[in-house]
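We give the chain.
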Amino acid sequence: MSKGVLGAVLAALVVLGAGTTAGATGEGTGDAGGGGAGDVGAEVVAGAAGAEADLAHHGHVSLWDGRVGVWLVTENHGPSDVADATVRLAFSAPMAGGQELPPGCLWSSARVVSCRTGALSGGGAAGELALDLRTVGRPQELTVDVSTAWRAGGADRNSFNDRHRVLVLATGDPYVF
């Protein structure tokens, strides 16, 4: 991804996510899974308009020989459409620098990747996201926190299916969430 495109994506995420607080993304709160007071304002405003969307993230994570594979599908169980959303993947171990990410994804830190889902129709699914990352060293285990960092409209009253903490052992086995 070119620096210009990466800068544009980062700027869009910053502008679109401007309503969230540090607690909403888990930074500095000890809650790497996300969620918090910052989400409430967005839900109240969206709820006032009557829109409701139910985002869900499902997939699996594998760890082997210092590599992490993440396969993720984001769905909107509806009923309302969502113009866009951002899924946040926070790893307990740092990732090696200089790794390319798929279009629509960026590094938030050495341990956090944020990716756009694109538009999600009510009752529809987004495309599959696949990441193949290298860790710093060869950890025997790590945790991955998957959460919705931001969504464009629609209150989500069932946030249990869009927040997951997955313990992954370095066996190469897929750990499903």
The first strand starts at residue 55 and ends at 64. The beta strands are 55-64, 67-76, 85-91, 105-109, 112-116, 124-134, 141-151, 163-169, 175-176.
